[in-house]
Design a protein that fits this description.
- Helix content is 47%, strand content 20%.
- The protein has seven helices and five strands.
- It has a five-stranded antiparallel beta sheet with strand order 4-1-3-2-5.
- A hairpin with a 6-residue loop joins strand 2 and strand 3.
- Helix 4 packs across helix 5.
- The longest helix has 27 residues.
- The protein is elongated.
- The N terminus and C terminus are likely disordered.
Length: 203
């Protein structure tokens, strides 16, 4: 159970890190294609992604997104998934880590993270505040006067759309990157053990 289980329904992101033997990368991609084809037929499925490692020794990270906990559980407990994941020895790959994210946790995970422990809630709250403050100042300062004559509902909708888009795609990734050491309490040794991954192949 994650820390966000008590806040109600939320999108769920499943992260799985898998080690692939050198020379079998294309077989692994083909296998992942079969996984995504199967997962996409499940109710509540929102999308998939695959991140290749930055180094030959690093893990590949599989990402599956579902509408809620029930949809994710339906997939993870299905015989279709079991048939794909339980017998991967012939594909020369093995699972090295697994993680489930929901709610705000997904905002604190980037393509450079392998599955790890989520930051404490109070740190996530402070980081979110650091991201919201400049957006609020900028949005209200630039657009507030121009939207003053608009009806209240229309004004709120425009600002909410602006804030949520900038938060998701700009500010939260930037704040998470800048505050990474503080959020996760990284030490030099834990950073050395971490393996980063590069840009997505499919999503």
């Amino acid at each position: 159970m994650t820390e966000t289980d008590d806040v109600g329904p939320a999108d769920v992101t499943l992260l799985t890190a898998r080690a692939v033997e050198p020379g079998y990368e294309q077989d692994f991609r083909d296998w992942f294609g079969r996984v995504t084809d199967t997962a996409s037929a499940f109710p509540g499925h929102l999308g998939d992604g695959l991140f290749r490692p930055a180094t030959a020794a690093g893990p590949w990270v599989l990402i599956h997104r579902f509408r809620d906990q029930e949809s994710a559980r339906h997939w993870t407990t299905s015989p279709e998934r079991a048939a794909l994941f339980d017998h991967c020895e012939g594909h020369h790959q093995s699972e090295v880590a697994r993680r489930e994210l929901s709610g705000m946790e997904t905002l604190f995970t980037t393509a450079h993270d392998t599955p790890t422990t989520a930051p404490p809630r109070w740190k996530m709250a402070l980081a979110a505040f650091a991201a919201v403050l400049p957006i609020s100042l900028l949005g209200n300062g630039l657009f507030g006067p121009a939207l003053r004559a608009w009806p209240l509902v229309a004004r709120v909708l425009v600002l909410a759309l602006l804030f949520s888009t900038l938060m998701t795609y700009l500010m939260m990734p930037a704040v998470t990157l800048v505050l990474r050491r503080w959020l996760y309490g990284w030490t030099k040794s834990t950073k050395t053990r971490s393996t980063s991954v590069s840009s997505p192949i499919r999503g």
